[in-house]
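Entry 14. Two folds queued back to back today. First construct below, sequence then structure tokens.
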Amino acid sequence: MTLNAPRSASEERNHLQLTLKSSLIGKFSGILQRGFAFKARLGVSISSFLCDNLALSPKYVQERIATIFLDGKTVDSIETAFLREGAILALSSAMPGLAGATLRRDGPYASLRDSITYREGKVKNSIEEGLITIKLFNLLIEELGPLFLEKGIIVKSSELRDFLAEQRDEFRQGCGDILFDGEVLEYGTFLSGNRPAENEEVELTVVTG
């Protein structure tokens, strides 16, 4: 996913909040897998991002997040891999077969993919927020997708409108309040309206109920 020119994570964006039946969260799997922008502290390790920022338990991270890519490189040590502005972080549960075993962090076949393994680099520590891109795969779409959607993901308005337009009656009927910048809108009204403008970035949060 390619966003517009970089902007501060704190810069104001349009905000869309959906209230949705929890059983329909899986409809967002395409967006979660293709990638979405997410506000995060820069200069922290992946371990800190997962355990401190997202409040995931170290046990969950160890047992469930088997494969991690940072900017296209497989990560073995999440304590020494750091997030930068614009970083692309892909998270996956265990994948089957030899390919899955080879890509698994700290796995017995890690030496087979030495050329695509992330190497620790220097990064400037910062307490400022920035934007990174998150991609979720396999079981993590279902397990972590709701968490990211609740916290708020950033997508292009065109992608969001296309997603909502293609949903069928089950989704539309299971969608309660739609708040756009604090204003209550009908489903169809949002789709046919001229806000947000084309290719604007929208912060989307999904509340289940």
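Second construct, same run, same settings:
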Amino acid sequence: MDKTIFPKDFLWGAASSAAQIEGAWNEDGRSPSIWDIAPKKKIRNGEDCHIASDHYHHFREDVKMMKELGLKSYRFSISWSRVMPEEGKVNEKGISFYSDLVDELIKADIEPLVTIYHWDMPLWVYEKGGWMSEKIIPLFKEYTKIVVDRLSDRVSWWMTINEPACFIMNGYMQGEHAPFKRNYLALSKLTRNCMLAHGEALKAIRKYAKKTPKVGIAFSSGAFIPKTEDPDEIEKARRMSVESDNGLMSNRWWMDPIILGKPVKAYGIYASHEKDMIEICQPLDFMGLNIYTSFNYSSWGKGSQVPSPGIAKNSLGWVIDERVMYWNLRFIYERYGLPIMITENGVSLNDSVSLDDKVHDPQRTDFIYRYLGQLKKAMNEGIPVIGYQHWSIMDNFEWAEGYDPRFGLVYVDFDSGRRIIKDSAWEYKKIIETNGAGL
């Protein structure tokens, strides 16, 4: 007997972000974000996100494809620059785009899952200090209220911020993402402002939402995979995954304050005051985990391993080991006890159109079955996973890597805007139709 325990309302879906797919960077009153003005030399091949996947002009077609694929949900983010092109100004055309998108999704019986912030800070906010300044906290709250006022009569699912660890580390520490800064001395300030902005946004969602909201935050996450199933090895992997002080990119750095209200101190750089915890630790309905690869091979992780020759990797060089899905879910749930949504999981490949005018991507199909098999294993052990959002719905602008990495279930010809549903998407549709019974 199949022991699958995916609930009937499991949120099978796919994800995207505004900056990566929308395009229309200067249309209908939108002002630039920090990614729109990125220096050409900072993006592979000198590319930019000005057109991206042109979702702004194709959103109805894109939702039709989502329905064709049987998606039950769609996670997308709001462009702050499109909604508020300057301080104190609401752009009606901008917010109407998202209202129309939500309407299309609902007509297609697809649950909209809204992320308030996915890395694309408006230039005008950055010029006021961005994450370096406490000014961003009330600005972010105001922006959140505007979005909630307009969409919450139809939207129930909300995420405040996507992967704070990544946009602070890559944008302010390593200088590899917008705004391309390198300032490790500002780590405490950046972390604190980001966490407080999350807390204020969450309170605003609960206060102003017209439908009872379900609120979370999407963390970048990973885990150490134990070398064996020996209890000592499992305990060692658990401690390294959720207890060790690995700094900004660790699970504990963000999750302990936001979920448990516990200040974290790592390397003596950041120690949040207890008074901050009152505002930072707001009740969450779920936690989102973006899971790709294990910590075993991370450059910053303790006990890093050298990948074996020939080990499976994606086109960005990330090691593919599906066991991270199970161990990540297990270790995180044991520590934090919240329902979990997989808010991102996917694989970048060098996809291309074949002679038969189709896109054959067997490695992605294999990836999906492998990772979802491990998700099923976790659920069968009682871990409450409420949804899975594949990254991504379509090929897109992959930040500083430009357009070469293709993560999508749908192939995008970036010159013509043409969409082609990949083989893996049809396989994912079968999984959805059977509610995971064949995993």
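Quick look at the second one. The mean pLDDT is 95. The chain has one domain: 11-433.
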